[in-house]
């Protein structure tokens, strides 16, 4: 049985892993227990700034710290980062300040809080900002490692983490985890499933089941949506001839959107997008949400069949 | 470093007059911009830059510099005028205001202009950023201070009050806000657009040390700055009562000149009122 963990725990561990760097400061908006920055706060209260329930202020306090040489890591729920979008746009991204934002509880997988808490658009909106790196890791190992690598970025970043535990996929593979580089989890020749976040594990499940039907499906963990690993997509496109994207996010503007933009300019082949089909979520358990919104293993399998059938032979 | 003699005051006033002329010329040349709020803020900016702030035009990014954040970033002509007088930029640079590729962008921008500490232009952001630089100074164990200027209309942005609450919570005694209370915003008088009621009581209620001053009386401004420096256990706010368009008769207290430039004739009148004349005008 594989270890189970939530990416938000990876973020919390990641902050501890970089705590020796005294430039690291953590900002909270009353959700540190949820985003898991609380572990850092408990050990380093003097380098943790409580901003109360005030996300707009938090993003710009972080900008002021970054402009003074610090490395601020600000977290809240993904949905509440969006409340501060213009602060992030004008006060963080435009001056290109290394503020690292973590939006936890992203996606419909977050579950029973319902549609108000399920950000399905965060990856899309942050991807539109110049200078911004956008990430959505699939397990705690990669979340912690990507958090560490934020220290090397000259500009800002946004990382979505998830509330609920999923299978850990990158145990002992830290060397393969690099911002901007997708990770090939499985090679395939018939179709490539490119996924992020909680759907990476579902993509692996789908590939295993497809193998039973005689279909050879590859799987890529595309934890970085921006900058997108276009070289890897080109390679997968050339070797399989069709692609499926899979994300717990709107089909508009997220990973599927990014891949569509890339393919249409570089390698026009069939693409099937698995994602939230332009609607809001509702209350339900994580698995129930994936079933309801067409994001589960079976949906990825169907999308793979559709993509393969569209290939011109 | 605090100016106290009448000669020092006269010198500051002379710099402010030159800055007013820069403001008129910049907005006239660009046929756009925000002269009204630049003229209301300018005496305070001059007092800060020429008597208080530890800044070095030759080292605009000096880590130990005091920070000044013009949160009302559209009132950039006033800022650029002071930066030119101080030597961060040249007088020639002032003609690049609102011009493609120019050092002087429409709204103040830390990536374009030496001496600008924050890219503003969207109201309600500078105080939060200033809170960040104030916390950074405290973490560094540094004596450097942060000064933020906001407008009175700007206080209608809810984010100002998020920041006000947080800065008081964190007891940022190294942070001072100047409110340029000129009573006019874009569309009309503040009183018409959104009544502010008791502004000093609002700040006091949020935990700030509060003082008022005449924002065009150099001695009162200097006294208020010294008072703010004496407050070290909490943030301080100076509500400066100002006149929008101060110094130019047809602009004074006139909402039309929030965001409108003087034409040729108005430029000549304005410069004459300042005791200056445009060569060839």
Protein described:
The complex is a heterodimer of chains A (313) and B (281). By secondary structure, chain A is of the alpha/beta class. Chain A has two domains: 4-167, 3-Layer(aba) Sandwich (Rossmann fold), CATH 3.40.50.970; 180-309, 3-Layer(aba) Sandwich (Rossmann fold). In chain A, 38% of the residues lie in helices and 20% in strands. A seven-stranded mixed beta sheet of chain A has the order 3-2-4-5-7-6-12, sandwiched between helices. In chain A, strands 9-11-10-13-14 form a five-stranded mixed beta sheet, sandwiched between helices. In chain A, strands 1-8 form a two-stranded antiparallel ribbon. The longest helix of chain A is centred in the middle third of the chain and has 14 residues, at 199-212. The radius of gyration of chain A is 19 Å and the shape is globular. The termini of chain A are far apart. Chain B is an alpha/beta fold and 281 residues long. Chain B has one domain (6-273): Rossmann fold (3-Layer(aba) Sandwich), CATH 3.40.50. Chain B has helices spanning 6-30, 35-51, 76-86, 126-140, 158-169, 190-193, 199-205, 218-230, 264-273, and strands at residues 67-70, 146-151, 175-181, 209-214, 236-241. Chain B has a five-stranded parallel beta sheet, sandwiched between helices. The mean pLDDT of chain B is 96. The chains are: A alpha/beta (313), B alpha/beta (281). Chain A binds chain B through residues 25, 46-47, 49-52, 54, 56-70, 72, 86-87, 90-91, 94-96, and chain B through 63, 109-111, 117-119, 121-122, 124-125, 128-137, 139-140, 158-159, 162-163, 165-166, 169-170.
